[in-house]
User: Fold these one by one.
Assistant:
Number 1:
Amino acid sequence: MTFTSKETLIAYYKKYAKETGFAVIKRGIKKTEDIVYYLTLTCSREGKPRKSRADATKAAPTKTVPTTIRTECQARICAMLLDNGDWYLTKVVIEHNHALSPEKQGSSDAIRR
């Protein structure tokens, strides 16, 4: 599958993510001389959970510690810029290892990071 621009690619995946019920973050951006030629968009639950700082210092029991949402989810798309200016999907992983919540995605257009 190809896209005419990076913005079109991102908009397409954001729309898919919103309809499916997950948030998107940018990862693995490669560029030369300010020209992006490789892009990875992943589920926001990608990555390993980190121990919170409060856990490490044995915080007082009354202090609440936010729970992490990282689940090592592998859902992602990878795309590369072709010589003609189009973006070509090189990898598509649609399986998530967590529950999806389309009703909770709201109307946010922001991609984190």
Note: Residues 6-20 form the longest helix (15 residues).
Number 2:
Amino acid sequence: MNHLPPCYDGSKRMSSMRPTRRIRLGPSFAASKRHETVAVSPKQNQQPKSSKLHRLPFFVWVVLIFFYCYIVCMHRSFLRMSKPYNANTLQLTTQQQLRSTPTKTSQNRIVHVIQTRFMQHQSNLLELGFARLALFEAFCLPSILAQTSQNFVWIIRVDPNLNDQILGRMRQKLKRENILLLGSNHNPEGMGRDNPDFDHFLGLDRNKPESTGMVFSGNITLVKEAFEVSANSGSSVLLETRLDADDALHKMFVEIVQNQARQYLMRNYVGGDASEQLWRMWCIHSNVEWHPLNPYPVPTDETSTKDDTHGFLLMYSDKSICATPGLTFGYGFGATRSSILEGRRLKHNDIVETVAQCDNRVKVKCASRLNELLPGALRARTATSAGMANIITGEDRMDQSRNGLKQKKASRQLIQQFFQQEFLWEGVGRLFSVAKSSARDARSLIVSRMNYIAADNLKGLCTPGHSCKENGKILLNAILKRHPMN
């Protein structure tokens, strides 16, 4: 289990916390230094090495062999991941999973699809598009490429008329077989469970095939096979995960959710009876936020000496909502989207209030928090956001009155994270594969072009599929007021 420094939870008292306490993030960051070799130069008149080796006691040889095996086992997964990517190997592994012979044991298959939307209905907003692309490359993409299980398909739906330069950079980055870059403003749910028409799933308009449903990169055959397995709901389990393009997932997210799906949605399957239509939801328990501007309620003289070129990290937990990144619907055998909550689309806070919480007694038809992943997700909070929640505008009066983080000056547990930024960055690098250099580049772009980005975002509010909150308009206008357009 991996942990970051203590997260902020307003329901707990902070008086017992020590402000300088450093909390572990799972295995030690110094693990890479676990094995060291010391080279010793031979002395003059020393006997040859071969004769020295022959004189080593038997138990020393046993210890050396054991130590060698230990090093190989400990670093085996790292060495394997460091090899160049082999598309044929990944394709074979995933297709073997999808094409397994239907028997009483092997027909119980899991299809896992991660759904991401990018600049839909906003193709003309170039400042906003390039800023979101920088966040996608810095946070979202590396976290998915680093997943410990790659048995999933990732479908990224972009506006069919997306700017050629942005599209070209995405196609260059997304070269894996199981990642489909799709030009479509259509966002269906259920992966064929409610509608088995694959063209409908792609958003293909037969009357206007040139304007939508275009595959820009990825293996469409592989995705179609996954779609057909999912559509045959009587012999498969579907996992459908939502991930915004500026968010990141813990590198073990896919593996753990799939393991729990096998435990709770597949274990009671006998002889193809899918009449129960079981389902389960998963939400992250806590997350890290990345801010290009300082979100901490600390005095100005203390922040003036802080290096802000990489942005700021802050970890907290909000049990009142089921946050967007990693929100996963698990469809049991025979279950469809219309059978889960009668097809209702709930807001994030409504999920907590409406859906039963999974516990030792309730295993299915409930919502589960991933306590195994602390934190489970990373969220970038910038002027590119549609909802503008927790966004720091740089306008002090506005931030003090409207941002909840700035109002928590009495929270010692929150403020101590301000002084643990290096420790947080180490953990984020290990758990999400996010590099400080990439965050620095993203921050540089967003801060230098903040007024243009905010102006574009203001234009994009209320377009189909995007937030239309009044608070977002107020904060974006505050940014424009502080950073006037030239």
Note: The mean pLDDT is 79.
Number 3:
Amino acid sequence: MAEKTEPIGILDHVALDICSYDSLVIPIKEKMETISTASCIRRVNRKLLEKNEDQFIPQKIYIGLFHHDKNDLKPMEDHKWRYLYSLLNRKPHLEVTLDNCVKELRELEHKARLCYEGHEQIKISSNEFVELMLVDGGFLIELFLRHSIKGLKRRGDYVFNTSGLLYELRCDMLMLENQIPYFILQRLFEIVPVPQHCKLSLTELAFRFFRDMIPGDHKLHLAKFGQEGNHLLDLIRHCFLPTIPRVKANQGGDIRGLPYKATKLRAAGIKLKKASTQDLLDIKFVNGVLEIPPIQVHQYTERLFRNLIAFEQCGTENTPHISSYVLLMKSLVEDQRDVTLLKQKEILTNYDVPEKKEAFTLFQRLWEEMNVAENINEFYYDGICEQVKQYKRSSWQLQNWNPGKPLKHIYLQQPLPPFVIVIAVLLILLILVGALFSIVSYFRHEI
């Protein structure tokens, strides 16, 4: 008969059945997890929250530990319980499956708590924490299943029949503070009764749910999405990772973007070309051609980029890929003329955002409000920008470029329009003809 459980481990919250183990096993296990597990679900910087709280705080559904004690989204809390019941009730003897889930989650509780930044200050009992992981994890799995398998959707399903709700849920579920550890989802998925005709893995189900908000080739992204990730936002981040080697700057200097915006680059003889790849960060400069993958600027773009940048700024070991991309695009797209040029080159595609979110204001706003310049300690595209600077063209006065100098103070000499050249030639001819007539007239007068 099982012994009575007692709280042990982190803040005396974790309760485990220790009847099968030596008394030393659990403390050693927890110590190894404490040393090996980094907090991957972080709080958004307070300064960022003050500027745009709605971009980081869920509006429809709370997932995970940080907002579990709030009661302002009660309607969706009830639907989470309904989805969990549907998931577990798909097989007879619901209690057996439920018992297995609870036992497995207790085994993972200590490690799961460690994933949350500042978990020591969050007061929640062992039972409450396990229940939270079960309800949130079960809801997500059932949501992914219903989204991919049409036969599972029920008449009157509030989530799928309410206009715009899926969009709002996706927006909330990609937020940095609204996550649960992915290994919790994986373990639950191994236990709960998945429909027999569903041959998709958890990763494939999750990717299908989020793929429309990730720019690029879905087939390529699925392989990246399947890489080991800490939570759903981290899995989405993997889809953006570049596939080509980084070009590092050879010279010193604080390079923070391209020297000129798109229209001036073209005027200087630099060609802008849509890259053949759809991997968003695979930007390269070859023989005077700046190749940029197409980006779909749509309704998800700003919120997704903000949370990815916030993730990069959390002091994790992540390379600031998205921050670097925003910095480069901000220097490339400064006004509507640049937007028009990039749309002509098919670099900006699927452009369905409102006027107030034009691409040039989008990247400018992200750069300013996310404090990108202040928080980026390594500009990923410094080598490419250095190559552009060093590219020699007779029409481009590169020698005066200073990477630290504001772009508005840099003058770019543009080629003269054809009609100006024609007028200049005619004026020169008229002057020569006039001079010739004057000379002839002079000698005739002398003779």
Note: The longest strand covers residues 271-274.
